[in-house]
Amino acid sequence: AMKINQDVVLRGKKVTLVPYTAAHVPRYHEWMQSEELQRLTASEPLSLEQEYEMQRSWRDDADKCTFIVLDSERWPGQAEESSMVGDVNLFLTNAEDPTVGEIEIMIADPSCRGRGFGKEATLLMMAYGVRKLGITKFEAKIGQENEASICMFKKLHFKEVAVNSIFQEVTLRLDVSDQERQWLLEQTNHVEEKSYAELKQPAGVLDT
């Protein structure tokens, strides 16, 4: 199952990726009440209870890998819930080809958009997918009107391969050649991988 990342923290310059836990659900649920985010992520609003179920499936399903995106300046130091800026997901959607990963990024906090958070979070997730999950091909499906996101993926070397006018979405793709792999690892060579359990509980601090 996709519990491979349940103790993984990927710490970049702007963002830090942590596993999606039940503690993140209330804030996440609050975000998803936004009609704009529902439109951008093509998702239906869920009840809080459904959101908790969703979080459990994210943790337990073998074909999904997700991280919550935190602002590196705020965490560790501030509470995770107040440091959350979005999430990044990888779906292994192709049963015939486990090396294909569909990637999704959401920077939910409007004040954090346009600051390179999405780009770094996506790079961190891609490098993790390549190193740990054996991904060699990435796909991203993005609403046609979401120009900022399409533009960002193109900067990350994705190429537009299809437009679905019914769903009004664009599919972008990146095949990870040796050259692309090298580039990806160079882009993320500053990233530190840490243990979530250790960062959450600084040495000597017991859960009370």
TrEMBL record:
Enzyme class (EC, first level): transferase
EC number(s) reported in the record = 2.3.1.308
Instruction: Give the record's keywords alphabetically.
Output: Acyltransferase, Transferase
- Determine if Glycoprotein is one of this entry's keywords: no
Instruction: List GO molecular-function terms, semicolon-separated.
Output: tubulin N-terminal-methionine acetyltransferase activity
Known catalytic reactions? N-terminal L-methionyl-[tubulin] + acetyl-CoA = N-terminal N(alpha)-acetyl-L-methionyl-[tubulin] + CoA + H(+)
Q: Does the keyword NAD apply?
A: no
Coiled-coil ranges per the record?
none
Cited InterPro entries: Acyl_CoA_acyltransferase (IPR016181), GNAT_dom (IPR000182), NAT9-like (IPR039135)
Q: Which domain of life is it from?
A: Eukaryota
Q: Which Pfam families match?
A: Acetyltransf_3 (PF13302)
Q: What does this protein do?
A: N-acetyltransferase that mediates the acetylation of the N-terminal residues of alpha- and beta-tubulin.
Return the similarity comment: Belongs to the acetyltransferase family. GNAT subfamily.
Can you say what this protein is called?
A: Alpha/beta-tubulin-N-acetyltransferase 9
Q: Which organism is it from?
A: Ploceus nigricollis
